[in-house]
Amino acid sequence: MGGSTISALLIISILLQLSAAALALRHVLSRGAGVWLLFAAAFLLLSLQTILLLRGGSGASSTILLLMASAALSGGMFYTSRNVDGNGAESEQTYRTLVETMNEGVLTLDREGKITYANSKAAELLAASTPEIVGTSISVYCGGECSRQFIQGIHRPGTPISLETCIRDAAGRTREVLVNMSPVLNDRGEITGTVATFSDITQLKNTEEMLREYAEKLKRSNELKDLFIDILHHDLLNYTSIIKGYAEVGLAGGVGRKEAEIIKRNVERIVEVIENATKFSKLRDMERITKVRLDLAEVVSDVVEELQPAFNGAGMMVENSINRNMVIRASPLVREIFWNLLNNTTKYAREGKIVRVDAEELWDSWVVRVVDFGAGVPAEQKKRIFNRFSRVEREGVKGSGLGLAIAKRIAELHGGRVGVEDNPAGGSVFWVELPKGG
What we know:
Blueprint: H1 3-31, H2 34-56, H3 60-100, E1 105-109, E2 115-118, H4 120-125, H5 130-133, H6 144-154, E3 161-168, E4 174-185, E5 191-200, H7 202-253, H8 257-285, E6 292-295, H9 296-306, H10 308-313, E7 317-320, E8 327-330, H11 334-348, E9 354-361, E10 365-372, H12 402-413, E11 417-422, E12 428-435
Parallel strand pairs: 7-9
Antiparallel strand pairs: 1-2, 1-5, 3-4, 4-5, 6-8, 9-10, 10-12, 11-12
Helix pairs in contact: 1-2, 1-3, 7-8, 8-12, 9-11, 11-12
């Protein structure tokens, strides 16, 4: 074999070795694997040795052996590299197929919160195409707290984050979603971004809210059922027992004027209890009220005038010291508050003989007080008398308690309050505070 032929073969061997070294170095840069660095170093050393043989001259047999070794090693290198690349491409395609067929939306984000990938479900959830989504910031679709959580997830290695939040799609619609985020790490443990899965739970949340409202209505229904049973057992039964007794007296020997008055009064109480129970059941389910411009001073004056016969019958006198306009936006239902407070004094504070009504203006509300000089309300009953849901709550309390419960509910519908305090001169001070704006 001539010298020129040997030199050509050595040059071919060097080219094969350098190509294999370059391929190994490419894998080092893309995958960071140490084994490829060893391959690159080995082929570089082999090519250096071949160059030295080329410069110093070599026999035909040693040249052929070196060429065969270089060809075999380079061929193995190229084959291994191809398989690695092919398996990687196949694995990536399999991964993308799985992600695209998921029922959850999937996004990947870089360290700045920019979206780098979105599967078809995520595109559907955000009402935009994948090209429109990729490259945008997560803050476009996510509120401030949600964006903060995403950035936190990107920069917190090894700590998955799960949260319920709201996202806005490209059409401006809001959806409730459950988000799970995990950081993406490279071979050196460095964060390169995050992957997030989204599950649309809007319908679930709506169903949950409907169930909560239904449970609340069921609770109120049960409370009202207990209330009506309590009314039937205590109030109506008491009044009908009295009527029955005097009716038996009438059957035995005739009914005088006094007995007729007692029967009439108890029938009126039955009617009052039924009417109050009906009012209270309606108020319990009421959430909104229609408000108009009213003068509370006129409302109180009208109630005092309407109840004057009851005060006269109880031997009581009313002193109304409200002498100014008290403008408010409120429902005409507020009349029921003052009617109940004043009417109660004719039943439970007769011995005081006098009832005083006054008012005070606060910054953004009016306070009306009904002051009596009767027996007063024991401390342990001051809160219970405004509630009427069970027998336990009305033990030792006179009357049905519905009037005060009605007053409290109407005040609450206006954003106001009711309460009772001791009168230093003896008796009680019932008060109601109502916002001027209703």
